[in-house]
Every structure is written in structure tokens, then in C-alpha cells.
Amino acid sequence: MRRALVLLGGLPLIGGCSLVRAEGPVPPAPPTIAVSPAFDTDQARPDRGLVVKASGGKLGKVDAYAGAVAIPGRYDSTGTVWRSSWTLPPGVEHTVTATAAGPQGGPTTLAMGRFRTRAAQRTFKVASVSPLPGETVGVGTPIIVTFDNPIRHKAAVERAMEVRSTKPVEGAWRWTSDTEAVYRTRHYWPARQNVSFTAHLSGVRAAPGVYGTADHALTFTIGRRQTSSVDTVTHQMVVRRDGAIVQTMAISAGMATTREYTTTSGIHLTMEKGDPVRMISPGRRKGDPGFYDLLIDHAVRISNSGEYVHAKNNVWAQGRVNVSHGCVNARPDQAAWFYDNSLRGDPVTIVGTDRVLEWNNGWGYWQLPWDKWVQGSALYDPRPSDVWVATKPPPHALP
């Protein structure tokens, strides 16, 4: 069995058999170092991380490795406790070397040892993330993370997901299902900056016996600030870039003869685009009244209920009357311009109809006010009056 090695410095050496009485003050005892998990443990829980504590002095240098990979960590304000920043990879041998010094130049202590984390019985990982790595997106963009297995311990997983941006923002996660979490900022992202997302999942316990075995990281860019406003009463669409109007478009919205054919009002986000997109009337078969099966040019999706901003040659209606099946129709050349100049996550705000966009219809996340959004976080705490929620991982990811 491996044995931990603890060396105590500054201790006097005493030889012979006779009793010797020391003259003068008794030297201070050297500090002690406690490591959790304990040295020689071979089934340490990865989700509890690594903690090194000093008693009777302050910690000096702490070096910790999972295999050959350094474990990041930080000291507390007293300098007596060091914690790993995140959980530990499962099924891996870890080595720790730590020193501690007594007060006012007193004796020092060196502790060295090893332990092994338990292997994962089952694993989970990130299945997909939006935005894509390196993608340039609009200022309303959410971060959507999908996992390959249901997450039972959502707070543990949420603590492990870190978002950093060049220009600091306030944001929070909301769980939309057991396998999906969405990060939204309180206000739109400041334009023209870089954002990094890291899921520190290695060692995170998502459910009994289910651990993450690998981290997941990517970076993306927030582009220019482009927002669009659509008024279905005046039949006009105005596109602004960095506050300046760059396009004004006459449009025709949903005819509103049924709920299905009514354009939704609210804050939409551009989600994807296609040229062309095949559009088929929902719930109708060929030969039924109102059936259509068309290829539509320069189509930019703004919801999951079939709404797009797209090209249509019904110029006679644009700017005058709403005749579409729920989409926003624009003149072909202007629709092409909007298609070419849109990024995923650009806000499109529509007003003037009696059908409200649901917050979970596509990327309708901005439909929820902030105080409602944060209630979907696993870290939400309703007790403080200011509705506290952890908007970024704490200094360490331990319980």
C-alpha cells in the first residue's frame, strides 16, 4: 500500500538516554496539514473535489495533479484553506504536495501523498451546444446546452457551467427540461465581444452513479447590434444596426382568420435561415381547402410555430393589408437583404396582434421578465428580497 509522506521541519533532535531540560522558551509546534480526500484513499468521490487545510499556520505552495494534468484551485481569504476550482476526474490517480509555515517564521511542514477517485458506473456529457464554436451571433443569443442523459442533480451541473465575456454581463441559466439548460443575459449582450462557455463536467455527479468524464468548451463572438421592429397594423418593418436605421420594409403579416394564421406578438430571435425553405400547410392534405406546398426564398425563421421573415411577390399587399399564413412577407429584394444581413440571435420584435409569442416557442426566451427567468435556475433562492441567483459559478464547485 502506498504511504503518505509527512515531513516536519524545525524539530530539535535529542540523543542519549539522560533527561535533558531545555533552557528558554519552548519552540512552537509545526503546523499540520489535512488533505481531503485522505492520502491512500482509492474510492474518493470525484464530485467532492480536493481540499487542503492548514492548522497552526498558513499554507504555502499547493501542487495537485490528476494524472499529469494540473488541478486548478484557490486559497481562501485566511490562507489556511485551498480548494480545487472544480470537481475531480473519476477513475484517476491524484498526487498532492503542500507546504505550511508557522507564524513569524516558525517551523514548516511538508505533506505529500496520493489518492484515487472512484470510476464512474455510468457517464453523461454535453450532446450539443448553440451557438456553434467560432460562430458570430446576434445580441439576443441564448446559450442552449443539451445533455445526452437526464440530469437529476441540476444544481451541481449548473455550478459547473461557466460563461465568461469580454464585456461583463449578468445572466442566469434556466432548465427547460431534464436534458436542456438555457443561459440568457438580463439585457442584450453588448455588441462586438467574445464569449467563452466551459462545462467543467469531469467529476460532476449528475445522478446516483452518473459522472461526467470530460469537460466541454467553446468560444463564440457577439457581432454588431442589429434589432428589427415589425408593426402589423402599419405594415412596416424597420431594421436598426447599432442604433441607426439601415432598412425600412413594407410587409404583410398573418391574415388572422385563425389562430394558426395569426402572427405572434413579442420578442422573437432569428433562429436559422434557408434559401429556399419548403413550407407545407400544417394539418391539411392535398386537396383540402387552404392546402399549400411551396418553396419560399430567403426565409429567416423566428419561431417554432412556422413563422419566418421571407420573400413574397405579393407586393400589392405589402404595406397595406395582412394576407399571409402567419409569416412576415417582404419584397423579394428586401427579403434577400434581410437574409444576407441576419445573424442567429438577432431580436425581431413584433407588435399589433392578439396572439402572444410563448416564451418556449422557438427562442422566445426574452418573453419572460428577468424575475421569472431566474426562477428556472437550479440555484434560485427565493428567500432574499432581491431574488438572488448565482449568475456564474462560485469560487469553487464543491457543495
UniProtKB/TrEMBL annotation:
Q: Which domain of life is it from?
A: Bacteria
- Acyltransferase among keywords: yes
Q: In which pathway does it act?
A: Cell wall biogenesis; peptidoglycan biosynthesis
The active site is formed by: 310 (proton donor/acceptor), 327 (nucleophile)
Q: What are the entry keywords? A: Acyltransferase, Cell shape, Cell wall biogenesis/degradation, Peptidoglycan synthesis, Signal, Transferase
Residue ranges of domain L,D-TPase catalytic in the record:
226-351
* Signal peptide location: 1-22
Question: Which Pfam families does the UniProt entry name for this protein?
Answer: Big_10, YkuD
The name under which this protein is listed is Ig-like domain-containing protein
